[in-house]
Amino acid sequence: MQNKITLITPPDFYENGNLSILLIGMSDIEQDIVSQWLGKNDINRDINIYTYQGENNVEWFLYALGRSDFKYINLDNEDPITNVMTSYIASRPEVYYHSENKDIVKLISYLNNNSVNNIEEFFERIFNDK
Question: How many whole angstroms separate alpha carbon 120 and alpha carbon 98?
Answer without folding.
Answer: 11
